[in-house]
């Protein structure tokens, strides 16, 4: 039985660790200044509403207890402002406790002003939205359960709803029960939807951060290759001068002179330097790391596959004659190389990289003879953190250090490989599709408009 898998070759270990930090949000995602600002706005709204109802509408309500409850919230905010800087990011637990206080303070005001019959009871959902969008799910659920308990208490125990003197207002119990059910459903729906949207945004943010790091690394490699070629070219002239001078010295000095041996050694070392620089320039040109680098498509694919061939896995590149000449963009190098490496990881014996083209499109297909994609995650491939490899989060901090290495076959993955590849390829105009071949194994198909990657011949 073959194990189902979702695939995604892992980026470098530091990139993975950085993306994991972003996903975890270990320092908290809310600034204390933001929480204080939201609490201040809520308290100002409560104070304005209480004063308006009492003095403008003339409704009877327990003014002093209401002001005391609002004052407690204001005092709490002042203490936080004086104790911590606004830029501080509290942990999830601290933020949860702050929101717990806010819900309790608002409960006190609502208890004094009609309980669930008060139309402003809906404001209790605001704290839950903040928790669901910025805290860990367990804290959001805990705050939701606490808020549900408060709503239930407000439905049963509360002071009368403020009304005109001599005209008490009491809503029918069936209506209050309907309000409780509606608020309970709204509470659950708000928690789930807000958390899902927030977590999706966080995952995408972390995935894009990892993608930018990967692309920056590839661009630095390209810049280093260009710098090496420039250095080889610039050093060629002074080395040529030294070679001429050493040759003249060798000719002028007597053959039995000790200096003649030194001149011969100097000339020999100069020639060695020129050979090294020549190999360096040739390597840069063959790797296509220059700013105007280009290669025929099949040669480019074969170059990307070369580093992943082994005795265990045979990688073949197939295509017709006269392939298009493509620009060697860093996005193409990283993304296609990542996909080939991933196929080699899971292949049993063979990986086939085939290329087809016509006047309008260029298509590259990467197929292996491994177990194929899992049907459970096939539709989600290309999203960040979709993988069935062991979780990177399960590893210890020591393993996530700078000296940690990433094995090719059994390493833990975070499911970023396909997301990064897909996003980078879409930048080049490619369409990326995943599937399983009829004869077994996974298949990834890339298709570009031909004019997006082909180098146009000069007129």
How would you sum up this structure, described in words?
- The protein is an alpha+beta fold.
- The chain folds into three domains: 31-88 and 90-171, no CATH class; 215-287; 294-453, Histidine kinase-like ATPase, C-terminal domain (Heat Shock Protein 90), CATH 3.30.565.10.
- Helices cover 57% and strands 9% of the residues.
- It has twelve helices and seven strands.
- The strands form two sheets. A five-stranded mixed beta sheet has the order 2-4-5-7-6. The chain has a two-stranded antiparallel sheet with strand order 1-3.
- A hairpin with a 3-residue loop joins strand 4 and strand 5.
- Helix 4 runs parallel beside helix 6 and helix 10 (330-346) packs antiparallel against helix 11 (417-427).
- The longest helix is centred in the middle third of the chain and has 80 residues, at 173-252.
- Residues 1-13, 22-27 and 390-413 have low confidence and may be disordered.
